[in-house]
Amino acid sequence: MVIFFGYLIGSISPAYILGKLLRGIDIRQHGDGNAGRMNIYYVLGLKPAVITAIFDLSKGLISMYIASILGTSQIYIHLTGLAAIAGHVFPFYLKFKGGTGIKYFH
Fold first, then answer.
1. SS (H, E, C) 14-65
2. 6: Cβ–Cβ under 8 A, 6 or more apart, which residues?
3. CA dist., res. 29 & res. 104, Å (int)
4. What pLDDT, on a 0 to 100 scale, did the predictor assign at position 104?
5. CA 29 from chain center: how many Å?
6. How many other CB atoms sit within 10 Å of the CB of residue 43?
7. How confident is the model at residue 106 (pLDDT cuts 50, 70, 90)?
8. Most buried pick, 28, 77, 99, 105, via CB within 10 A?
9. Cα 101 from Cα 60, distance rounded (Å)
10. What is the pLDDT at residue 4?
11. pTM of the model
12. Over the stretch 36-78, which tens digit does the pLDDT of each residue have?
């Protein structure tokens, strides 16, 4: 169950939300077509990019923290973090086209 919630938290796309709120656009249809920090920077500017970066970086940590508070085992805590990355890259409500997640793997 915590893995599913990790995915849901990871699927929240600040880039998509900020594109809609600030300009009424789908950020994936502008710039490089990615719903990520760099595309937000190019299309909307520095402040939205910083907000996106902070939120995106926090999603995995928040998911893992919640899993640890609930007393789940270490393996499930780590799987919850991976699920958050999967949610970031493949958000269900954006037809599974989200951020790249590439910074998480470097």
1. HHHHHHHHHHCCCHHHCCCCCCCHHHHHHHHCHHHHHHHHHHHHHHHHHHHH
2. 60, 63, 64, 67, 79, 80, 81, 82, 83, 84, 87
3. 24
4. 46
5. 18
6. 20
7. very low
8. 99
9. 11
10. 95
11. 0.82
12. 889 999 999 999 999 999 998 899 999 999 999 999 999 999 9
Closest by CA position to 96, among listed 19, 2, 22, 28: 28
User: Is the pLDDT score of 6 beyond 90?
Assistant: yes
Type of residue numbered 91: P
Q: Take residue 90 and report the two structure tokens written for it.
A: 């493949």
Residue 15 amino acid letter: A
CA distances from 102 to 71, 74, 82, 85 (A): 29, 24, 13, 10
Average pLDDT over residues 86-98: 82
Whole-angstrom Cα distance, residue 46 to residue 41? 5
The residue among 70, 49, 54 whose CA lies nearest residue 3 is 70
